[in-house]
Amino acid sequence: TELTEKLEEVVMIWTKQIRQVLVESEQIRREADDVGPSAELEHWKSRMSSFNSLLDEIKSSRVKKIISILQAARSKTLKQWKELDGSITIAANEAKDNVRYLYTLDKFFGPLANASPVMMEHIPSLINTVCMIYCTSPYYNTSERLTSLFLKITNQMINTCKTYLCEG
Fold it and tell me: Taking every annotated instance into account, which residue ranges of this chain make up the domain Dynein heavy chain tail (predicted)?
């Protein structure tokens, strides 16, 4: 029972740390007013990397051994652990899915940033791709996510126009 108590303390520390990561990941992002759409992709790539690292750690043999010992001891800490494990898996899947969908927009980001203000040729395809993401993505189809993306696309268009005016 002394070993079980020590392992439960370890799991409780992990639980607290994982909860903190989840809370921080859900906080509203503060970004500069002129940030472009590439920042959205970078955000999700970073988040995917963080959650995948966390999942790798959770699935490590060391953690599995501790969890199996606590399962054998019928520890009550495992209920919280399983909930957090599920939450981390969902967050990792969301990030991975969002990166996959945002990569379909990546081909538009360069031309949008480097085009002249007459960038109309790129807009219909870009909007169609965003519409496809909205219709098919299980995670990226919220007004919050799309508003953030459209804001960044608009910022990029404005920056492109400013650059063109300053150079011309």
Answer: 5-166
How is the chain split into domains, by residue range? 2-167
User: How many CA atoms lie within 13 Å of 40's alpha carbon, on the beta-carbon side?
Assistant: 26
Asked whether the beta carbons of 110 and 35 are under 8 A apart, the reply is no
Q: What is the DSSP string of 103-138?
A: HHHHHHHHHHHHS-S--TTTHHHHHHHHHHHHHH-S
Would you state the structure tokens that stand for residue 164, as one six-digit string? 């063109």
Residue 19 and residue 104: Cα distance in Å, rounded? Answer: 32
Spatial contact of 36 and 69, defined as CB atoms under 8 Å apart: no
pTM, two decimals, is: 0.82
pLDDT at 41 (0 to 100)? 92
**What fold characterizes domain 2-167?**
Methane Monooxygenase Hydroxylase; Chain G, domain 1 (1.20.58)
pLDDT digits (tens, 9 = 90+) for 52-79: 999 999 999 999 999 999 999 998 889 9
Which DSSP category does 139 fall into? S
